[in-house]
Each structure stands twice: as C-alpha cells, then as structure tokens.
Amino acid sequence: MLDKNPSNLLLIEETLLLKSLAIFADTPETILAEIAELTEEEEIVAGNDIVKEGEVGSCMYIIFKGEVSIRKEKNVLATMQEKDFFGELSLLDTEKRSATATAVTDCILFRIDQEPFYDLLEQQPEVLRGIMKILSNRLRAANHQISELKTAALGHIG
Asked: What is the DSSP letter of 109?
C-alpha cells in the first residue's frame, strides 16, 4: 500500500505548494517553510485506502499528484485532485474519521501530523486562522446543502 519513495521536492517547492492551498494562502512564506519541514511524503497505489471512516485520525493530507475519492459508506462525497487537501479536522482533534479516502490513481501525498503541527501553532497562531476560514466555508456549504435537501424533501411531501 505505502511506498516510501520520495519525489525529492526541494523545500522551496514544498513551500510553494503549501502557498497554493487555500488553507495556507494567508500564511507567510517563512512559516510555510516550517510547515514544509513537518511534512512526510507518501506514495499510495491506486485502489488503496488512505484513511478509513471510523478510524481515529491524527493527520491531514495534501495531494501533490493523483486523484482521491472521499466517500461515506458507498456514497462519493467528493473527488479531490492535485493541490486539494483532506483530513484537516484531524489536525485539530483526534476523533474518528468521518469518511474514507481512497486513491483513485497512484498518488503522491504530503502528510502533516498533529503533534508537530500543534507545536507550530503555539509559535505561529496565524496558521490557525487559515484553517478556521476553510472549516467555516465548508460548514456554510454543508448548511446550505442541508437546507436545500430539506426544502426538496418538503416539496415532495406536499
């Protein structure tokens, strides 16, 4: 499943990748370089699960290359590609994963683990602002979807 064969990205390339992510868009490059040093590169073969719904999580993933399917039970919630990320809730709390992530194609991912990330947050709280912004946007979108589903369901009843 896991092949530790790094792509040998330079620190500056990883920093630029992080800067391109919405979650880190407002984070200064000097701090992004610190985050880049925390990342662990993983290669995942197509068809393999990266994380499984219900397992305890303590890291997030950034997709450098490849495509990942996010699903709850058998329902596909999203298909993520290069420069997307998932599992960010596990950076904030160690709870059970809410969905399964599966490699659709062979993938190169960067993993950020919770403990070293917490240490960074203590020194650089502005990183937390980016995470809170993304989570707020995702929560708003989920609330909108719930509202639309309720309206559609009520329309079918009446």
From this structure: E
Q: pTM for the complete prediction?
A: 0.77
Which 3 state secondary structure label does DSSP give 137? Answer: helix
In this structure, what token pair is assigned to residue 29? 């490059």
Distance, first Cα to last Cα, the chain: 50
CA distances from 135 to 7, 130, 138 (A): 30, 9, 5
Contact by Cβ (8 Å): 1, 106: no
In Å, how far are 17, 51, 52 from 132, measured between CA atoms? 20, 22, 24
pLDDT per position as a tens digit, 71-105: 998 899 999 999 898 998 887 788 899 999 999 99
Structure-block tokens of residue 8: 């040998």
